[in-house]
Every structure is written in C-alpha cells, then in structure tokens.
Amino acid sequence: MAEAYIIDAVRTPRGRGKKGKGSLTEIHPQELLAQTLNCLAERGGIERGQVEDVVVGVVSQVGEQGGNIARNAVLAAGWPIEVPGVSLNRFCGSGLQAVNFAAMGVMSGMHELVVGGGVESMSRVPMGSDQSGSDGHNPLLAAKHFQVPQGISADLIATLEGFTREELDRFALESQQKAAVAQRENRFARSLFPVVDPVTRQVALDHDEYPRPETTMEALSQLQPAFAELGAKPVGPNGETMDEMALRIYPQAGQMKHQHTAGNSSGIVDGAAAVLLASDGYVRSHGLKARARIRAISTHGEEPLIMLTAPAETARKALRKAGMEVGDIDLWEINEAFATVPLQTIRTLGVDPARVNVNGGAIALGHPLGATGAMLLGTALDELERRGLATALVTLCIAGGQGVATIIERV
Ligand SMILES: CC(C)(COP(=O)(O)OP(=O)(O)OC[C@H]1O[C@@H](n2cnc3c(N)ncnc32)[C@H](O)[C@@H]1OP(=O)(O)O)[C@@H](O)C(=O)NCCC(=O)NCCS
User: Does the active-site annotation cover 397?
Assistant: First the structure.
C-alpha cells in the first residue's frame, strides 16, 4: 500500500448558523467551499489543474447544497475545468470520510494529488432539509430498525451510562474553557483563514463566533432539556411516543432522562474545510513538505437506534489496523455531537481525558455537519505540531449507528 501524505489543511471560521445572527449566513455554501479550496491551493503551492479529484462531505444535499456542490465549488473557485468533484453523505462523518476516500485514492496508487473536505451552511440549508427523516420514510425498514433523531439517542446513552446532568454540563463547560484558551492563544491560526464576502470583498468572519467563554455551570444548569418534547411525540404504530419506542429496544434504561440542552449539545453553525493529500512520488517530484501521513482509516456500524456509540469500536478498529494501542495516541478529537458521546467513548476505551479535544469541540465551537470531520483533522494536526507530539486519532459518531476514524502521524 502506498503512503498518503497530508500536505496542508485549512478551514473557514465557524459562523453562527442562524439567519440574522451569523456572519456567514449571507454566503452561498459553494462560495464558502470555493474560498476554502483556493486558500488550500495557494498555501499548498500546487497547480490546481493537477488535482485529480475533490471529494467533499455535505449532509443536506438539496437546494444550494445539492447538484454536486464539490464540482460546482471547483468551478466557482475558478479552477481548471479538468478538475472533477464528488459529493458524499455519511452524515456527521462526511468531512472525515471525504478525507479518507481522498487518502484511499492515493494509497491505492491511483491518485497523486487529491483534496478531501466538507461544507455545511446550516443557516441556509438547515438540518433535515432533505426531508428524509431517519429512514427515508420506509415503513418496512422502520419495522426492522426503528430510528430516532440524534438528540433522543444522546439522552438514551446518557441514561444507560448513568451520566448525570452535572457531568454533561461539566464537560460542556470544559469545552467552552478549552476553546476560550485556544482562541486567546491563537491556536487555530494555522488552519483558519478569514472568509470574505464574495460581493463586497470585505472580511465577513475571521474567528469562530459560536463559543460562549462566559459560560458557567450555574447558567448551564438552568437550561431546559432540548429533546423532551420530541421524546413525547407519538410516532409508533400504536401511538407510542418516541421515548417509549426507544425504551422498547433498551428496557434496561428504565425511564428516559432528557439531559441534553442547547448548552451541552453541538452548535448549529456554517463552515467549510479542506485537506490536501499527495503521494510520496508527488511530494518528492514537486518539492513539497508533507506535514503528516495517514496511518489508518476505519468505519464501523452498530445498532441504529442508539446510534452514537460507534466511535469507540471504530477507534479500536483503526488502532488494530495501525498496530497501536489506545495509549499510543497523543491527541484525540472525538466529535462533541452531544456531551455524552465523548464521555461514553472515553469511558469505553479508557482514554486519558487530558488528551481529548484539548482545544474544545463542537459544543463550544459548533458542528457544521459535513465539514466537521475535515476541520477536526486540521485542528489535531496543528496541535500535534504546536506540542511537538506525533499521533492523533479523529473520530465522529454518525447517524444510522455508524462511526468513522482516522489516525494521523506527523512526518
Ligand atoms: C440543542 C439544540 C436543539 C439547541 O438549539 P437552539 O435552542 O437553537 O440553541 P441556541 O444555540 O440558539 O441556544 C439557545 C439559548 O440557550 C442558551 N444557551 C446556549 N448555550 C449556552 C451556554 N453555553 N451558556 C448559557 N446559555 C446558553 C442561550 O440563552 C441561547 O439563546 P441566545 O443564543 O439567544 O443567547 C441545537 O443546538 C441542536 O439541535 N444541536 C444538535 C445538532 C445535531 O443534532 N447535530 C448532529 C449531531 S449527531
């Protein structure tokens, strides 16, 4: 197998994903991605026409994000028409999956220079815009595998694990505190570029604007559970509520405790990210300097109703492929879809919490669905360099009960 090298990784800042509140909400997602691609090409010092494919993760593929946004963003960026683009959807893991597929092209020996990345404008194309629900409205599938929205799964996991509201809120507070330090110390500067308004050419946003550094335990504890109403919705064949349907499959949970709130769930934001990957031959012949290599890639599926527990086994799978142990990983990025997800992964694998999401995560910074995985890879690489460490594992939970993971190693 050939090596896939990471040449560079860039991302937009994350803008608040609500119309009228966020700084990126006026920008078409194709343009967000186009600016990201151009920043990557400029910084990577590559000839754009030599990129063999642009693989892009995007979850809500309708309207402005439909019509193969990868190809349209390549064109919007002014890249040569010879550069193709493909858009994929592995829900919240899409951005990392795109990087992984791009890397696999290089590892297979078929590609020399590829881009993997992701984009999601949650303000312009809100979550659920494709109106597919959890199961594409297929009653036969629903009878086999009843699925619920992620917030219900998160509350179910927390109930089963016995995480208290205080533990979830404490994790959220720490995410905010770590992100505040990272922003104060400019730790995101290496990947982050300022997005400009494509019409006025003025800077629209140059920093992540979702964090609330003033967050306190007291304020978090006052927030109402976000998914209790959803859990009480009648959805079963005999009018059972969402909670009752979930508890049918997980009776050991007893009673559902709704503990996730706007404060300890990932934020709704807009953003894009891209990673440049090249073969050994391309790196040498073009005098590039690789920053890291891909050590292992994995995906894994679990029971779809509980949905968000797969990162642990997905990480184990990647570690096995790399011939590594949990303790060999210097830094972990475990996507903070909900506080319970990293907490459950940390507990299941026995990870040292001091190595996890050291600059905060999606609770503080936001989770632009299709882009997050590629963003986290860049964040992990920047931090490995800053601390002089070697290896990082990035993993995300995914709808339908899936996980995706990537292990990178500095070179
Ligand atoms: C949980 C969720 C429904 C909350 O949505 P929301 O109510 O629109 O959330 P907001 O971020 O606007 O916060 C609402 C209010 O909560 C309060 N709040 C949020 N975070 C807070 C914090 N850290 N400290 C104090 N108050 C806070 C504020 O009053 C805020 O209102 P404001 O923005 O006007 O100040 C939404 O964030 C969500 O669905 N997250 C998960 C997304 C998801 O499923 N992704 C896929 C994962 S698998």
Answer: yes
